[in-house]
Amino acid sequence: MASKEDIIALDKNQIKAAGEVLGRALRDDPVSVHDIPDKEKRHAVMKYVFQMTSCLGVKFGETHATSPNLEGIAVWLPYINKEFKMILNIGCLLKSKIYKMGSQASKRIKPIEEYNTKVHREFAPSDHWYLQTLGVEPIHQGKGYGSLLMEFMLEKIDNSKPLPVFLETSTEINVKFYKRFGFEVMKEGIIPDTDVEQWYLLRSAK
Q1: What is the CATH number of domain 4-80+88-109+124-163?
Q2: Among 43, 103, 125, 191, which residue's Cβ finds the most Cβ atoms within 10 Å?
Q3: Cβ burial 15-26 (10 Å sphere, 16+ → b, else e)
């Protein structure tokens, strides 16, 4: 089992590998299933989504792995603009080859992105950290790697410039997990025009 001393910050050379780990970890997440219902295609292309998010984390925030073996990955983005803006970068879009998801996936994810942005803005309108992605390689799940990544970054936030932390999840078991770290559910329900249930959680600055 890894410890906090084993955690590393990823660099641009590890973005592809991080995306592959997260793609395997989250390929059957309810949002992933909604975006690409076909299981075979979904398992083949989800890595591109998470290569993009890993790229954003490396460029603009912090992206951590439990060790150089990448058992688990966490992508954190800082929202420090007074005017709320979603972080986007054309270089990350191209580098991740997100276009391989296909146009249908883009259409299906649009209502989720729009609704998530609306709720995000509602409950975290000022400076905060956003846990964009947290995933553990399937063969390593249940071993405490996710908790390790959470503890590491939350301690760092609390001991430097304390800020709120916002996240969303589409599985109820994850809600219980995040509540252990001081998160509270701010809103829950089915995202309009989808069958995806989503929970939105916020952890106040400590």
Answers
A1: 3.40.630.30
A2: 191
A3: bbbbbbbbbbbb
